[in-house]
Amino acid sequence: MADRLFRAEGVTKRFGGLTALKDVSIEVDEGSIFAVIGPNGAGKTTLFNVVSGVYRADEGAIWLGGSTLHGLGTHRIARLGVARTFQITRLFKQLSVMDNVILGLGRGDIPMGGLIRGPRSKEAVDKALETLAAVGLEKSADTKAGTLPYGDQRRVELARAMAMKPRLLLLDEPCAGLTHHEAVNLAEVVRQVRDTGVTVVLVEHNMHVAMGLADHVAVLDHGEKIAEGTPETVQRNPLVIEAYLGRGESGESHA
Ligand SMILES: Nc1ncnc2c1ncn2[C@@H]1O[C@H](COP(=O)(O)OP(=O)(O)O)[C@@H](O)[C@H]1O
Ligand SMILES: [Mg+2]
Fold first, then answer.
1. Residue to probe by mutation, ligand 1, list 19, 45, 52, 87, most atoms within 8 Å of CB
2. Is the CB of 42 under 6 A from ligand 1?
């Protein structure tokens, strides 16, 4: 059996009277793709925010390997090897693709001004180009990030996270807003990332994208984990079908 890289145990997060996560536990094997799916508002992004240190869980424990992440700040967690992308792309749109990736090289804590204004080291440039090649964007290195098609912007964001050489990569709806063709291509890039040894947890509203990509799936609904297993077993689970279909959601939309 593969080693567990990541564990969340009994994580609860409240916002005032709303319990966004209720006693959620997941365990992620090293080198796997783990998908967290669920309808809008299920608590998927909140889970990422708690894991990456944006919010502190009210209850529960979070571990990366032998290190506890609970209560640490975003920079500490990044330095321990957790990188993430966001549901809505957060690129520096005025900067080149290359500079966006170079910003990731220092695990997110390099002061931006100095880095951009100062000369870039050959080492940084080489590493950025290597990372861009891994997502198929080496030809766009000098392009302003904001001018790329949205599918390519998502790749830049992925490359920036990869430049951090993370052990755990959190992807929040990486295929949201992409055409079917772009989504299929990005899914292939995510597989290649996993094949380099990076453990991936992705949040996905679109059940079909997640099912095609993930080794293991957990389903959240109203902040609670309602099912977990292989894509095949989860897809057949009546609770999951109810969560998606019972409310008129096809799982196809990105609304
Ligand atoms: N910072 C916040 N303050 C208050 N409520 C929040 C905050 N972040 C998320 N929520 C609420 O928590 C619930 C889960 O949200 P979210 O994790 O974004 O869901 P998902 O990503 O699954 O669509 C929603 O009801 C949302 O409105
Ligand atoms: Mg979300």
1. 45
2. yes
Answer yes or no: is pLDDT of 53 > 90. Answer: yes
Provide the CB-side half-sphere exposure for 49 (13 A, CA): 16
Ligand 1: residue of 11, 15, 249 to mutate (most ligand atoms within 8 A of CB) is 15
Domain with CATH 3.40.50.300 in the chain: 1-81+168-255
What is the C-alpha to C-alpha distance for residues 28 and 26, in angstroms, rounded to an integer?
7
Sheet strands side by side (includes 4-15):
18-29, 4-15, 59-64, 67-68
Domain 1-81+168-255 top-level CATH class? alpha beta
Q: Is 49 in the pocket of ligand 1 (CB under 6 A)?
A: no
**pLDDT tens digit sequence for 107-133:** 544 444 444 555 678 888 999 999 999
pLDDT digits (tens, 9 = 90+) for 138-190: 999 999 999 999 999 999 999 999 988 899 999 999 988 888 888 888 999 99
Cα of 54 from ligand 2 centre, angstroms: 14
Residue 197 has pLDDT above 50, yes or no: yes
Nearest ligand to the C-alpha atom of residue 42? 1
